[in-house]
Amino acid sequence: MKNINAFLFAFASFALSTQAVQAADFELSSKALKKGAPIAAENYWNNFGCTGGNVMPDLAWKNAPAGTKSFAVTFYDKDAPTGSGFWHWVAYDIPATVTALPGGLNGGTLPGGAVEGNTDLGKPGFFGPCPPVGRKHSYLFTVHALKVDKLPVDKAAGPALVGFFLWQNTIAKTSFDVVAGPRQ
Asked: Could you report the per-residue pLDDT of 102-158, keeping only the tens digit for each?
């Protein structure tokens, strides 16, 4: 029994390290954004006192791991004063053949079959950043490489439930942060 446990531990360690190598090659980029830099005013939401254009920036990714059957993309405010952050955009069931989203007004156009999920506003759409006056927030764009063609989630589900299924089905993910604020 001891040898079997040692073998299983070694196999699991190898499997995890292989996945980590694949994930290390998985990259996310944008022509409009620089990692860690301020997001442009045109990307801000046009509500809650912000006067942006609500334009989602372009996103592109490469080197997804073998076995990827679809992608999901999320945009999340880590510093929202809610106790749990704030989901500004959720899209999933993006076909594995897609490696870029052009962005655009309110999230732009998604490829056929993709689903734009509900945000923390309770409805689908891209809602650009709009941190409170005087505060700087960090936002995270993430692309998830998924092991399923379609997430087993109802289109009316909230972002937390979608996140649960993302967590269960993600092979690898790639992310980058941008910042917004402080605004006057």
From this structure: 998 877 899 999 999 999 999 999 999 988 888 889 999 999 999 999 999 998 999
Structural domain including 127 reads: 27-180
Token representation of residue 48: 């809650």
Strand spans (E) along the chain: 27-29, 55-56, 59-62, 70-77, 86-95, 100-101, 104-105, 115-116, 137-146, 170-180
CATH number at 45 reads: 3.90.280.10
pLDDT of residue 23: 60
pLDDT of amino acid 18:
38
The reply to whether 103 falls in a domain is: yes
C-alpha distances out from residue 141 to 8, 13, 18, 51, Å:
35, 28, 24, 21
pLDDT in tens, 53-106: 999 999 999 999 999 999 999 999 998 888 788 999 999 999 999 999 999 887
Which residue, among 143, 183, 141, has the nearest Cα to 32 in the 3D structure? 141
The dihedral sign for the CA sequence 121, 126, 129, 133: negative
143, 149 Cβ separation under 8 angstroms: no
With contact defined as beta carbons under 8 Å apart, do 113 and 36 qualify? no
